[in-house]
Design goal:
Layout lengths: L3 E5 L7 H14 L6 E5 L2 E5 L9 E4 L5 E6 L2 E2 L7 H11 L1 H7 E2 L2 E7 L4 E6 L8 E5 L2 E5 L2 H7 L6 H10 L13 E2 L4 E6 L4 E5 L13 H22 L3 E4 L4 H13 L4 E5 L5 H13 L2 E5 L7 H11 L5 H15 L4 E3 L27 H9 L16 H13 L7 H25 L5 E2 L5 H8 L3 H4 L3 H10 L1 H4 L23 H18 L18 H9 L5 H7 L6 H23 L11
Helix pairs in contact: 1-4, 1-21, 2-3, 4-21, 5-21, 6-7, 6-14, 6-16, 7-16, 9-10, 9-21, 11-12, 19-21
Length: about 600
């Protein structure tokens, strides 16, 4: 469920109706989940202590101020070990100091009754999504965009909808709804009761020193950072579950736990005969790691997809996320936190092949080329939209240019890293992580500040061909590095003495090149992968009516695509139809008289 909604206004305490409306909308959107009210000078809100794993942490100080944290936070300051410590540190050192000391996917809310203001801190990568909307004479801030949309008169955001249906991601500060905006990454935003808003960044790529560290310095920082992250995660969550696959990123993640001797379990998903599963089992057996294999047998029903719409606010393909949710619900029965290797690909120069041969050159990024080959590469039916003239490549080119505008003069590799980090990872990986946080905690150690900075300040020549990660694994845990990767070759530095172990590189990359050529000859993006459903799930007549009424779609094209085919474009449209239906039901409930004596559960 969403973890909180807070209304900041001139005198929320004197306005019972907004708070009751928020409660009514919550109960329709998220049936069966509990909520608790919190009130103070200048603010009124709700938080959700529904399950121990997914609740918001709330502390109220002696002065009456509320401190709320959603997600999973970890403090580098050794004096901050509890929520009370966190509140005390805010009181002594200020919100910005605390923001700079926290890692993990979190959203911190500090309600300041003396100043009649609410401070919101978003995490370094913007992984835990937080949204804001003007409402009831002030501002409403929440971890759920659909909760905010239900309270206002928001209609669909045409650009956000086009991005979502074409790419599966909504970019920049957009959501599916006009007027509901996502707060940026690494931000400290103050919403005052008089309506004023101030915003500043507490960290950015501008602080980095690209090309600073050589191999020895980079490996040392990775060793220290992965060990610190493992200790931090284990100190809060005793039963850790780590992804173990045939790739570099998960292997680098578990290295931190193995180096420190901390206990953890391993998991992998996929067919039993796949390289990922075979290698995962080999590593687990070799290191005595408790292992869980999740076979791809789950096929979602309409009820599963509708539940996924609730978890994702309709901002991620619900048919695809229903499968992810089923895996995490099963894991949450046996463990306390899910640990994955997201952001680790930055250490391997992800997308840098587009820059070859001018790596780390002090030259502008070709934003249009990146938009065309990475952000707008998949084929989709543009005629579906009423505004069929919209050019996605042109649009994403401008999105990339806006994101990188403050970084001009930095190496092109840093600009590529930033486009990937600030755009794709914030909105794609962040949407998955924020949705999963409503089931149980999930963490990506490579998004912790020490590891992220160590990665981004290593020389570019070290990061290409995964040399840095190979050296890190080989020096810290040579036995782990010796296991084969998905391609059949080991995760160790290549030398004359071991070149015979790298012969699988040739067929592995030959297969990749063949697939790429096939995509180029069959059309941009190639054939869309269809999702396996338990049964055909068609848009209901009510959902089709709502989509038509939105004005975002061309009627004839919408009728053609509403055929139950489980292509990504169709399941995203299905997701949107279900989200609109949920929104309509919540708004209908708000038309009924609000009971001023409704209990705070």
């Amino acid at each position: 469920m969403p973890q909180f909604l807070i209304h900041v206004g001139a005198d929320p305490l004197a306005q019972a109706q907004p708070g009751l409306a928020a409660a009514r909308a919550h109960d329709v959107l998220f049936p069966g989940t509990k909520r608790t009210r919190m009130r103070g000078a200048g603010y009124d809100g709700w938080y959700g202590p529904d399950r121990a794993a997914s609740r918001a942490e709330v502390f109220r100080s002696a002065t009456g101020d509320h401190l709320v944290v959603a997600g999973s936070w970890f403090a580098r300051d050794s004096g901050i070990r509890s929520l009370e410590d966190l509140a005390r540190s805010v009181e002594r050192h200020g919100v910005e100091y605390v923001a700079n000391e926290l890692d993990g996917p979190f959203a911190l809310v500090v309600c300041d009754t003396a100043k009649r203001a609410v401070h919101i801190v978003t995490d370094l990568a913007g992984t835990m999504h937080v949204f804001a909307m003007r409402w009831a004479g002030g501002w409403a801030i929440s971890t759920s965009s659909s909760w905010l949309a239900a309270l206002g008169s928001s209609t669909l955001d045409d650009i956000g909808v086009h991005e979502f249906l074409a790419t599966g991601i909504v970019y920049e500060d957009r959501t599916l709804w006009k007027g509901v905006r996502k707060l940026g990454q690494a931000r400290l935003i103050t919403f005052a009761a008089d309506g004023d808003v101030s915003e500043r960044r507490y960290w950015s790529f501008e602080e980095l020193v690209p090309e600073r560290d050589d191999l020895d310095a980079s490996v040392a920082r990775l060793v220290e950072g992965t060990a610190q992250a493992a200790k931090a995660i284990s100190s809060r969550y005793p039963r850790v579950l780590c992804d173990i696959t045939g790739g570099y990123d998960s292997r680098a993640t578990i290295a931190g736990f193995l180096m420190t001797g901390l206990p953890f379990g391993g998991t992998v998903s996929g067919p039993a005969e796949s390289p990922d599963v075979i290698i995962s089992r080999m590593i687990a057996s070799g290191f005595g790691i408790e292992h869980r294999h999740m076979a791809p047998s789950f096929r979602p029903t309409r009820a599963d997809v509708e539940d996924a719409v609730v978890l994702t606010d309709g901002e991620y393909d619900a048919a695809e996320y229903a499968r992810i949710a089923s895996i995490h619900r099963e894991h949450a029965r046996h463990h306390d936190v899910s640990v994955n290797g997201s952001f680790g690909e930055l250490a391997r120069g992800y997308w840098w092949e587009l820059l070859w041969p001018s790596l780390a050159a002090p030259k502008p990024l070709d934003s249009r080329m990146v938009a065309q080959k990475r952000f707008a590469a998949a084929a989709y039916d543009r005629s579906l939209f009423a505004a069929s003239h919209f050019d996605l490549v042109d649009h994403m080119t401008r999105v990339i240019e806006r994101a990188n505008a403050p970084l001009q003069g930095l190496p092109n590799t840093t600009l590529m890293d930033h486009a990937y980090f600030a755009l794709r990872m914030q909105r794609w990986q962040g949407r998955i992580a924020s949705s999963t946080a409503r089931i149980w905690p999930n963490v990506s150690p490579f998004a912790f500040r020490p590891l992220l900075e160590a990665t981004l300040e290593a020389k570019a020549s070290l990061r290409i061909r995964s040399q840095l990660i190979r050296a890190f694994l080989h020096r810290s845990l040579p036995a782990l590095a010796a296991y084969p990767l998905e391609g059949g070759y080991p995760a160790i530095p290549a030398r004359i003495s071991n070149l015979h172990r790298f012969w699988p590189v040739v067929p592995h990359y030959a297969t990749k090149v063949t697939a790429k050529i096939s995509r180029m000859t069959t059309g941009r993006g190639g054939k869309a992968q269809r999702i396996s459903l338990a049964e055909p799930i068609r848009l209901t007549s009510h959902e089709v009516q709502l989509l038509h009424a939105s004005g975002a779609f061309a009627r004839d094209a919408l009728d053609r695509i509403s055929d139950g085919a489980a292509s990504p474009q169709y399941t995203r449209l299905l997701t949107l139809g279900m989200a609109l239906s949920k929104l309509a039901a919540s708004r209908e409930a708000l038309r009924e008289p609000l009971d001023a004596h409704a209990p705070s559960t």
